[in-house]
Every structure is written in structure tokens, then in C-alpha cells.
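so my prof wants the structure for this chain in the C-alpha cells format not the other one, which i didnt know existed until like an hour ago. anyway here's the sequence
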Amino acid sequence: MQALRVMAVNAALLPSLALFEETLTSKLGMGNAYMGPCDLILLDAPKFEDGFPLLVVIRTTTRCDYSYVESAAIKIGNDILEVASFGEHFLNGVDGADLAHEDIFLGPFPVHYKQVDIRTHTFDISVGGGETITLKSYKELASVKLDKADAQRFLGSQGMLGDYATGETMSRDGTMVVTDPDLLAAEWQVHPEDDGLVFQTAQAPQYPQSCELPHQSKTTKSRRLGESTVPEDDARNACAGATNMDGCVHDVLATGDLELASVVW
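here's what i got, hopefully its the right format
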């Protein structure tokens, strides 16, 4: 089973922060990622903004021989925006909240919604100074991108992306480096009693039930990556402008979706 390279991000999270990007590439998107269904804490940044910590949570699932993020949620302070397939969203528990015609804020930051087409929806959180957090859904895929982020916001951060200062992926208590992706997922599985309820609906497995390991997934493997419906040459042509050619080609071959190259990558 393969994990889509895009996973929770559009090619790169925090592109100006090399340690985080390296952690993302090695732990979340380049072949040794956790690849089972689970709710995971991608990033916990308690010093993001005075009085407004940031929490980024993803929900992974499996299909055929690949896994992907089907939902992503951003919590800033006490406000939560959850985004899923085809633009489905919840704002503080309100299903399909009108984001296009109202002044909407997540914590102190305005949210700008755009429906690009029926398949593609973007939710931009303007942090200020050119900094943005973007939640995007393309068909069934969800992604998160932090752009032009101020490094000071991520001091003391934790989660699947690891420690900001060192790039190391750590246990929850910060005492142990965890390099095995399955063990890392177990460390950062959402604990509702400690982390709060972020997603509107519970989906198995939920802690204390453990994340499903890839070989435990009941998803039918109807085809393998090497049996893609898209020829590799077509995938490479579609990904010609991608910032990460290998990752883009991998995802196009896995999904059989040439449009993924231009929309996500």
C-alpha cells in the first residue's frame, strides 16, 4: 500500500522552513508514511498567536492500494473549521456554514472561501503579513498548506511533523525520538479526552482503539500502483510544472487522475 505524496499538504508544508519540509517529506510522503485509517495530530502549535493556539488534525483513509487524507480540520483558539470531500465543511459545528457572504473568522483571522469548480474548494485563513493557511478539497482529497509562515509561531510545536527546532519526530511527552511511522501514528492519534473533539463525526478507529495498521485495513485491493490506468508518460507530462515531479507522478498513477497534477500540485 502507498500513501499519496500530497497527504495533508500541497507539495510542501511551510516551504520556507527547511526542517519541517524535510520532516514532511521523510515521514509523511515518501514511502514510509503511516498508511492506515486514523485521526492524527499533524501539528500542535501552542504559541501560534497570543491566546490562540493552532491545532491541525487530519483523518486518513484507504482506497485500493493507496491512502489519503479525506478530512482536515484547523482549530485556532476555540474555533474549528473542518473540510472534507467536494467542499463539505463545518464551522464550529454548523454544517455548510455560509462562508461566501458573511464575515467569517477563525480566532482573530478572517476566512475566505472560494468554489473554483464543483470538484475544487479553497478555504484561506489570512493570518496577516502575507501569511495564509489554506484548506483545500479536490474531489475526495483534503489538504492543508501554510504559506509564508512566521517561524516564531511554531516554537514548541509538536505532532506528526515533529519538533520545530530539531526536525525530529517525538513522542507525546517529548522524551523519545520516534522514527517508525506506525509508532509515530500511535503516539499522535487523536485522544478526544485530552485533545478535544475536532471532527464532527466519530469514525473508527477512535482512541483507545488503536489506529489500523496497513495490513489490517479491510479495503479491497482492486489494483496495484504498477497497474495504473494512466500511462507513466502521460503522468509525467501532466506533472511537468509540479514543484515535486516524483510526488506528483506517484499520485497521478495511484489515483489514475491526470487533473490532480494541476489542481493539487
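also thought this was worth mentioning. The first strand starts at residue 2 and ends at 3.
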